[in-house]
Design brief:
heterodimer, A: alpha/beta, 6-stranded mixed β-sheet
């Protein structure tokens, strides 16, 4: 059962982060643009330099070759890039044909030219391409930003099923409060989701008072939230924790 | 055949043609007379100087001195490769990648040519070494500069595509494979073209020179063929080395694309 765990993960804009995402759990992440959401996802995929360590299914990132780690943590960037002319060349030879069908495509889509895809088609096909590589976790950056409601529903349903079926931990950056609200509700076979927001350089619960009974609401996320300064250097003695920054008014 | 030496009067006659051209430009308000005259003057000074230098150099028998001279040639060529990059590698790599690749390719090819093919004794005899090396370096320099520029520019512009490939679990070599191939091709195109056109479109400068100085045309043609082969091999090896080192440098030990190791478009 893949569990995604970060310890003291430090990216450019954010204070060191401790976070656990249980198998099959969903965590939403929101925050003003430029606050470092995408950079956090990139660090999680080991695509940027970072401090701190992360584990997936008990395996530390550093213990795996970088390509294998990236394949396992499955990052879907906000913008989908393609490098061959034909859509199908980006897919592994053997993949579940249902993937495309569930996103509203027929099998002929594999012969389409990438240059002719609309923005929404690119986004949906990028998700299909990612899932076809069978990652153990999902890191989604604005996965439905360019989609109309029916296609957004398709994508949401597919991701929820992937969570359920593969017990994949999901970290989802979403700007849409309704989407976060909607998918945070518990569903059959799925626990309710946690919603985090970036305030200043810290990760906080979006609605701390709501207490939806999602695990431990007091669990520390950003290091600064831990009770005593004495604990700060417990795990990574050398960690340079984020500079203190005045709280922004919410 | 005897080499017909040019007297100062002969040269002055040729130069008067340039003067005539400048006069024409002045009368017709073409506005190029000044540039033509300055360029002509520069060529007189530069070529006289290099004639003197080569005269001096060919009289040398010290290996250390000639070796030093070849290293200066290499350094200037390496500098030129760096200057032609839109996105340079930061630090010593900017100068190092091109220079190292040229050293590996040109020097090994010239060594092979002088010892095995031409069989000069000693192999570093400057009358052969310096002009051949100059021709090799001049051409490999162009090829390597084109290859490296292609590589770094495409990586810079194709960041999204490269990273998308990395994210799906591809290795760095796989993610940059297409760009590498493209850069190699771009670096080799000029020399392949000049091999294909040799003799039909243009009589290469070296062959022309040999014929004018009295060599039988067939001898000159054979020398020219050898030079073309050496240049092609040198350019190919040099470009391959530069592309390999350059593309490796674009990724770190965790196979992340590190465009911060390049300078921006404006340096």
């Amino acid at each position: 059962m893949p569990l995604l765990r970060l310890q003291g993960l430090k990216t450019r804009n954010l204070a060191p982060i401790d976070l656990q995402i249980a198998p099959g759990a969903l965590v939403f992440l929101s925050g003003p643009s430029g606050s470092g959401k995408s950079l956090l996802l990139r660090a999680l995929a080991d695509l940027d330099e970072h401090q701190g360590e992360m584990w997936l299914d008990g395996t530390p990132c550093a213990a795996l070759p970088a390509p294998e780690w990236r394949r396992r943590v499955g990052l879907l960037p906000a913008e989908a890039f393609w490098w061959y002319d034909r859509v199908g060349d980006h897919f592994p030879a053997r993949h579940d044909p249902q993937l495309l069908e569930r996103l509203g495509f027929g099998p002929e889509v594999l012969d389409w030219q990438v240059g002719r895809l609309s923005t929404g088609e690119r986004q949906r096909l990028a998700l299909a391409r990612l899932l076809a590589h069978q990652p153990q976790a999902l890191l989604l950056d604005e996965a439905t930003a360019n989609l109309d409601p029916p296609n957004r529903d398709r994508v949401e349903a597919l991701i929820q099923d992937y969570r359920r079926e593969w017990a994949a931990p999901v970290l989802w950056v979403s700007h849409d409060p309704e989407q976060r609200q909607r998918l945070a509700q518990p569903a059959p076979g799925l626990a309710s989701a946690r919603r985090l927001v970036i305030r200043g350089d810290r990760l906080e619960e979006e609605e701390p008072a709501a207490g939806l009974g999602l695990g431990d609401p007091a669990s520390p996320i950003t290091r600064e939230h831990q009770s005593g300064p004495g604990q700060r250097h417990g795990i990574l003695g050398h960690a340079q924790h984020g500079r203190p920054q005045p709280e922004r008014p919410n | 055949m005897e080499l017909i030496s040019l007297s100062p009067l002969d040269l002055a006659l040729a130069a008067s043609l340039v003067l005539l051209l400048a006069l024409l430009s002045w009368r017709l308000h073409l506005g190029v007379e000044q540039r033509v005259l300055i360029a002509a003057l520069r060529s007189v000074i530069q070529l006289s100087l290099i004639g003197l230098v080569l005269n001096f150099l060919f009289a040398q028998t010290s290996f250390a001195f000639i070796g030093l001279w070849t290293l200066i040639m290499l350094g200037v060529a390496g500098w030129e490769v760096m200057a032609r990059q839109k996105h340079r590698y930061r630090g010593a790599w900017g100068f190092g990648i091109g220079t190292l690749s040229m050293f590996l390719s040109s020097f090994s090819v010239i060594l092979l040519a002088l010892t095995l093919i031409i069989g000069v004794e000693p192999w570093w005899q400057p009358q052969y070494l310096i002009p051949l090396l100059g021709m090799l370096l001049g051409n490999t320099m162009s090829g390597i500069a084109i290859s490296l520029d292609n590589l770094s520019r495409q990586a810079w512009e194709g960041r999204g595509r490269i990273e998308a490939r990395l994210l799906l679990g591809q290795s760095w070599e796989c993610a940059i494979r297409d760009i590498r191939r493209d850069s190699m091709r771009a670096g080799l195109i000029p020399i392949v073209n000049s091999m294909a056109a040799a003799g039909l479109v243009s009589l290469p400068g070296m062959m022309t020179g040999q014929i004018l100085s009295g060599s039988p045309p067939m001898e000159a043609a054979k020398y020219q063929m050898m030079i073309l082969f050496l240049i092609t091999a040198g350019t190919g090896l040099g470009s391959a080395a530069a592309i390999w080192v350059g593309s490796r440098r674009l990724f770190d030990h965790r196979e992340r694309l590190r465009l911060d190791r390049l300078t921006g478009p404006g340096h």
